[in-house]
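Action item from last meeting closed. Structure (142 res):
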């Protein structure tokens, strides 16, 4: 899911126990958009809703096709709205150099995850005191 863009643009949002307000964040100047394969995202959210857990899954024996169809249709509509409204709003509001799309799948894939992390560090303009090695980047994925 995503937080609605307009409250973020206009000075924070009230979710997550008001972390941004408590942290003194008044507005967002850049954005990292973590993007996930739509089907995987919808399936994962369906399982989370059904099991009330981020780690449990739906067993074959308990799979309800009609419930899946109804939820998948609703979640697909929400996913479409996220792209059509929220991400488009971000792209219109920020200059291209002030937002980055990051692939969840590339962060999970051993062959590409350090490259994706290096892209994020470069985007955030994080200048380590020394050159970051592949081993150090890999350490982020313990």
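Sequence:
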């Amino acid at each position: 899911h995503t937080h609605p863009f307009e409250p973020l643009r206009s000075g924070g949002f009230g979710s997550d126990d008001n972390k941004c307000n408590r942290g003194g964040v008044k507005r967002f100047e850049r954005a990292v958009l973590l993007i996930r394969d739509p089907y995987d995202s919808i399936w994962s959210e369906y399982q989370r809703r059904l099991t009330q857990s981020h780690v449990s899954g739906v067993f074959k024996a308990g799979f309800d096709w009609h419930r899946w169809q109804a939820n998948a249709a609703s979640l697909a509509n929400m996913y479409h709205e996220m792209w059509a409204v929220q991400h488009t709003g971000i792209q219109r509001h920020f200059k291209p150099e002030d937002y980055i799309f990051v692939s969840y799948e590339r962060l999970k894939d051993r062959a590409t995850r350090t490259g994706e992390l290096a892209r994020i560090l470069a985007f955030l303009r994080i200048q380590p005191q020394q050159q970051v090695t592949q081993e150090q980047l890999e350490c982020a994925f313990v």
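Note appended to the action item: The two ends are 25 Å apart (CA to CA).
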